[in-house]
Amino acid sequence: MKLVFIHGAACTPAVFDRQRAAFPDAVALALPGHGVPGTASDIAGFADAVEGQIAEEGWDEVVLCGSSMGGAIAMEIAIRARVPLAGLVTIGSGAKLRVAPAIIESLRRDDPAVLATLADAMFAAPNDRSRALMLEQFLAISPEQRLADFLACDAFDARERVAEIAVPTLLLVGERDIMTPPDRSAFLGDRIVGARVEVLPGLGHLAMLEGPEATNLQLAGFVDSLNG
Hints:
Helix content is 46%, strand content 14%.
């Protein structure tokens, strides 16, 4: 079994550093345009790239764990059912990822103020350290790719298809996630057969960064249940 992490919009695999330390056999992929060559402009294109990496590496019994946009990519792959999945985990994601038009327009203008706003929105209790961490992530991605990521999120709508997901599914969401609130995960839980929703107390959108211990505990329990 291979645990594979997929980062979100305008981020890099570094957002999963605490998970890679806890699960040393796991892999955190870099999406096209996020520190590796290439680009993608929609969730389907990102899903193509991840499926290609899985096939190239020959991984079997893959457990996909995606954060936000990464969760959308993981769901798209699970719906397609083209690669051998053993399980699916989303962190702060949803079947539809609408982005406020003001954010899109600010990203289109490459307004630096929007990056600070987004950085704070990723945490329940933002501070100078978390803000600096997220700004480092955002600035590692080109303005063009940052915009493409958020446009891809805004266009994503799998509400009529998520019921096709047929693998064990864990839906993690921070109790105080303002980007993809808990009701988005509840929607998925109502439509994916056997899915389990876990609301993580006191955490925000990037729960794996803000509360790595709680997130890792849930991940470990889920992976153990698949092995059992």
